[in-house]
């Protein structure tokens, strides 16, 4: 009987590269996968492998993530359209990425504490095709946000999340409303009120989704909430009835789940808050069942 065993190292490039290797982040590809064999190394040098770059790594990684990030961007040969960064990034690195990636469509910065508002503004000026910008724990003032909006006329999706425990973490709704009229998707966080929501509705008339789960101190009046639900297809909001509990829930979840990014903690905390009003909540790819009697939350992160 013929040996029907197939050498999986000899899979077609489109399967090995597009379906398998691209499931790894950039560090895993550069420090591990490309060193397996010559065939994998050849695939890992293909610019098509680097249209999407995931540098979402632990800060305690032993590798020089800045150097690896530049290497990944270089391999894209100007074809980069999507990048996620969760490293000790600086304005210099962000400037390098922007100069080499004029086709960039999506930029996600997670906890890049050394990025300044000025550095971010200078970077987006070189990204004429930017449609999605996600900022997690990035320190930007209202003037920075407004400048970003003015320099990104095609911006359709904007996410800005801050630490729940920061009661002064205003998302500068007026800056968003004044400078991002083309927005379709908005996820703010921090201190919000009814006037700021009205400003967003007036300044961003094309909104299709508005996620207010991170705005833990927000208490919408009934008429405004009704207006949001009528105008916006995907509207997420938790009534502020356990505002003092939110910070404690945040750190409890962090301890219970282990290695979890702060942005994920914020999202899950929002679900737990909503659970006090509903026994079952479903949002996007996360399912959560809350049992009021036992006060225990069962979190199911779906694939």
Please trace the helix and strand order, writing H or E for each element: HHHEHEHEHEHEHEHEHEHHEEE
| Low-confidence residue ranges | 240-245, 250-267, 271-303
Overall form: elongated
Rg estimate, integer Å: 21 Å
Q: Approximately how much beta-strand content do the residues carry?
A: 15-25%
Cα separation of the termini: 39 Å
Give a concise summary.
This protein is α/β, with parallel strands linked by helices.
Overall description:
The chain has 303 residues and is of the alpha/beta class. It has one domain: Leucine-rich repeat, LRR (right-handed beta-alpha superhelix) (Alpha-Beta Horseshoe), CATH 3.80.10.10. Helices cover 38% and strands 17% of the residues. The chain is built from twelve helices and eleven strands. The chain is elongated, with a radius of gyration of 21 Å.
Keywords:
single chain, 303 residues, alpha/beta, 8-stranded parallel β-sheet, 12 helices, 38% helix, 17% strand, LRR_dom_sf, F-box-like_dom_sf
Chain-wise SSE layout:
Blueprint: H1 13-20, H2 26-31, H3 38-44, E1 52-56, H4 65-76, E2 82-86, H5 91-100, E3 106-110, H6 117-124, E4 132-136, H7 142-151, E5 157-161, H8 173-179, E6 185-187, H9 194-203, E7 209-211, H10 222-231, E8 234-236, H11 246-257, H12 262-275, E9 280-283, E10 286-291, E11 296-301
Parallel strand pairs: 1-2, 2-3, 3-4, 4-5, 5-6, 6-7, 7-8
Antiparallel strand pairs: 9-10, 10-11
Helix pairs in contact: 4-5, 5-6, 6-7, 7-8, 8-9, 11-12
């Amino acid at each position: 009987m013929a040996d029907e065993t197939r050498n999986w190292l000899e899979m077609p490039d489109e399967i090995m590269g597009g379906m398998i290797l691209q499931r790894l982040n950039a560090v895993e590809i550069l420090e591990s996968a490309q060193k397996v064999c010559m065939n994998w190394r050849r695939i890992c040098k293909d610019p098509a492998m680097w249209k999407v770059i995931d540098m979402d790594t632990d800060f305690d990684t032993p590798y020089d993530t800045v150097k690896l990030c530049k290497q990944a961007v270089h391999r894209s040969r100007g074809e980069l359209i999507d990048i996620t960064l969760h490293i000790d990034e600086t304005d210099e690195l962000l400037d390098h990425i922007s100069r080499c990636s004029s086709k960039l469509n999506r930029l996600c910065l997670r906890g890049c504490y050394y990025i300044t508002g000025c550095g971010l503004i200078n970077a987006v000026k070189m990204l004429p095709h930017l449609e999605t910008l996600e900022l997690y724990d990035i320190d930007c003032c209202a003037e920075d946000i407004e400048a970003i909006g003015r320099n990104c006329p095609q911006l359709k999706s904007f996410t800005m999340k801050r630490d729940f425990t920061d009661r002064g973490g205003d998302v500068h709704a007026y800056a968003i409303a004044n400078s991002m009229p083309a927005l379709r998707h908005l996820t703010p966080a921090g201190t919000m009120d009814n006037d700021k929501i009205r400003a967003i509705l007036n300044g961003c008339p094309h909104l299709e989704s508005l996620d207010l789960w991170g705005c833990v101190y927000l208490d919408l009046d009934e008429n405004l909430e009704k207006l949001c639900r009528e105008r916006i297809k995907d509207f997420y909001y938790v009534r502020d009835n356990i505002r003092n509990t939110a910070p404690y829930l945040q750190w409890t979840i962090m301890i219970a789940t282990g290695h979890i990014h702060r942005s994920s903690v914020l999202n899950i905390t929002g679900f737990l808050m909503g659970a006090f009003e509903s026994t079952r909540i479903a949002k996007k790819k996360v399912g959560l069942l809350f049992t009021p009697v036992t006060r225990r939350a069962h979190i199911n992160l779906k694939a």
